[in-house]
Design a protein that fits this description.
Elements: H1 2-94, E1 104-113, E2 122-125, E3 138-141, E4 144-152, E5 157-161, E6 171-177, E7 180-190, E8 193-198, E9 210-213, E10 225-236, E11 239-246, E12 255-261
Antiparallel strand pairs: 1-2, 1-12, 2-5, 3-4, 3-12, 4-5, 6-7, 6-9, 7-8, 8-11, 9-10, 10-11
Length: 263
């Protein structure tokens, strides 16, 4: 009996130990499985995120390249539109002179000589007396007065520019301020500005007023734009002086028109 009792105790002890070991083992295995599963799942999530980010980066790169190309196309289109707009502006400027065709006509000309030392003083054009060119006729570019003819040959002519500094180029001008017509003389060019001297000190102009030829000077018709007032200087009873910015930069002019007076 004692032996059987001992054997029974041993068997029960073994069974209990096996049960405990199995429970703990299962628990450990379960916990290990969960930890491993979490690690694997986390790895898969990160891998998926990386693939998604890589895909998004590629798509963004492609989209950026497309935007760059579109911007280049838009820039080229804008340049073309600007060029067309400049041409239209030039055409509109030329149309500012509304001359009576029964009295006046124009001859197209090209500047063929302009010395660097006398760049602002004058230039030679490729038309002369054979085309009806005479001394004193007005020269315009894009509808803006830039000078007058001062020497004529058979096939060539020389023009004195409004920007001349060594000689005075007296051009009668007018401005409309409100309902008042104000006359004066453009007789000097200094610091990139014309000096417009009015006849009376009671003649008041405002900044922005446009100066035109008044038509009182032989061979130069009325209505040719010269420039606009940018500064006002009150002088004495003999008249006021206004600084006028030229409406065109004659430094870059190549093509001009000579206004002929057939009257």
């Amino acid at each position: 009996n004692i032996i059987w009792m001992i054997i029974s105790i041993i068997i029960v002890t073994i069974i209990i130990n096996l049960f405990l070991v199995t429970s703990i083992g299962n628990k450990m295995l379960n916990e290990g499985y969960l930890v491993t599963s979490n690690i694997i799942n986390s790895f898969h999530v990160k891998l998926s995120e990386h693939e998604l980010n890589s895909k998004n980066m590629k798509e963004l790169k492609v989209e950026n390249e497309k935007i760059k190309k579109d911007n280049i196309k838009l820039k080229n289109t804008n340049e073309k539109l600007k060029s067309k707009n400049d041409l239209l502006s030039a055409a509109n400027a030329r149309n500012k002179i509304k001359l009576d065709n029964k009295k006046y006509k124009t001859v197209n000309a090209t500047i063929i000589k302009r010395d660097l030392a006398t760049w602002e003083y004058g230039a030679t054009i490729n038309v002369g007396s054979d085309e009806g060119i005479k001394e004193g006729q007005a020269i315009v570019s894009e509808g803006i007065l830039i000078g007058v003819i001062d020497n004529v040959d058979k096939n060539f002519a020389h023009m004195k520019l409004m920007t001349s500094k060594n000689v005075k180029l007296n051009v009668l001008g007018e401005a409309i301020s409100g309902k008042q017509e104000i006359n004066g003389i453009v007789n000097k060019y200094k610091n990139k500005m014309y000096e417009f001297k009015t006849i009376s000190s009671n003649d008041n102009l405002n900044k922005g007023d446009v100066i035109y030829t008044n038509g009182y000077q032989k061979l130069i018709p009325q209505g040719i734009e010269i420039g606009h007032v940018v500064d006002i200087q009150v002088d004495d009873i003999m008249g006021n002086t206004y600084m006028v910015s030229p409406s065109i930069n004659s430094d870059d002019v190549r093509y001009v028109q000579v206004i002929l007076n057939d009257n």
